[in-house]
Amino acid sequence: MASSARPADGRLTDRYGRVATDLRVSLTDRCNLRCSYCMPPEGLPWLPSPDILTDDEVTRLIGVAVRQLGVTEVRFTGGEPLLRPGLTRIVAAAAALRPRPVLSLTTNGIGLDRLAPGLQAAGLDRVNVSLDTLDPQRFAQLAHRRRLPDVLAGLAGAAAAGLTPVKINAVLLRGVNDDEAPALLRYALSHGYELRFIEQMPLDAQQSWDRDRMVTATEILDRLRAEFTLLPDPAERGAAPAETWLVAGAERPDGSPARVGVIGTVTRPFCGDCDRTRLTADGQVRDCLFARKESDLRGALRSGADDDELAQRWRRAMAGKLAGHGIDDPTFLQPARPMSAIGG
Ligand code: SAM
Ligand code: SF4
């Protein structure tokens, strides 16, 4: 269907007037790392295979989102999306949609050096790679696997394949890597990557998040300012979760000013501007990372629902989105599923 056929009023609108145009698709809940803020060292009971959407089913739902619901950006995530055997095929199918969505991937980077050229050729536009430390011992402590060299190779492979701008996501944990903010920024600047820090969120399977121990956006900025001059970023923030600053005296490879970002989900919530909708690997729509309810699309899809009905179900799922995540509310309860099963 051509873009002119996209119904403006058929979009994913909620009762606060927000319109979701950015779809996060989780392709698996499995992972080859065990980041302590995400999952326990022994892993988790993975979703049963029959529950996981097939490549064709994911592709079909992305098509519904783009053609009928006005989704313009699709980000693949997980778990670790590079573990999904059909990833390149799914990317290629999404890239063939019209209007063509912007396609990106959030990954831990392991294997990306090998996979990046094929993903770029399939139509992937850019990547976010998670990197919390440059110290191999700390990496092993934090992620319970000795894979730092693979992650760094993945970053380099993504840049070489043109999956740019390559962004780095970093989570700081008190007493583990909270002194590394300036070193991570120096590394990102010297390689032409764009670094964003993410405040640790209450989404770990172990439910060990502690508001009083988390490293706040303000603290991260203070640590960066000890070594860098950060200037206000004149660029419009829009619905982007990251607040960004220009790093004085630093440039990106294309000569534009280098930036650093902080995603202060907990202390600087941006729910009022949220434009996200989420699809889990087992075909559930979530209107928020922190939602406590999901809407099943897999059942309808497997029972023969047509695209119009799937679109209608998706609209209904988004219409009831709450105004905010409520982490600071005393009644806040962590979602039943951890981040790795929701799709971060
Ligand atoms: N495995 C991929 C990766 O690590 O990039 C994709 C999935 S991961 C759930 C997506 C992002 O969520 C990563 O950048 C990760 O650091 C972040 N993340 C996971 N758990 C988090 C938490 N409790 N608080 C903040 N960020 C978290
Ligand atoms: Fe795996 Fe990503 Fe979770 Fe780390 S943050 S355990 S890489 S899913």
Please explain how this structure is put together:
There is one protein chain. Helix content is about 30%, strand content about 20%. By secondary structure, the protein is α/β, with parallel strands linked by helices. The chain has one domain (about 10-325, about 335-340): Aldolase class I (TIM Barrel). The strands form two sheets. A twelve-stranded mixed β-sheet has the order 9-10-11-8-7-6-5-4-3-12-13-14. A two-stranded antiparallel ribbon has the order 1-2. Iron/sulfur cluster binds near residues 33, 34, 35, 78 and 79.
Brief characterization of the structure:
By secondary structure, the protein is of the alpha/beta class. Helices cover 28% and strands 18% of the residues. A hairpin with a 4-residue loop joins β12 (276-279) and β13.
Protein topology:
Elements: E1 12-13, E2 19-20, E3 22-26, H1 55-69, E4 73-77, H2 87-95, E5 102-107, H3 112-122, E6 126-130, H4 136-143, H5 148-160, E7 167-171, H6 181-191, E8 194-198, H7 217-225, E9 230-232, E10 243-251, E11 257-263, E12 276-279, E13 284-286, E14 295-296, H8 298-302, H9 307-319, H10 339-342
Parallel strand pairs: 3-4, 3-12, 4-5, 5-6, 6-7, 7-8, 8-11
Antiparallel strand pairs: 1-2, 9-10, 10-11, 12-13, 13-14
This protein binds S-adenosylmethionine (SAM) and iron/sulfur cluster.
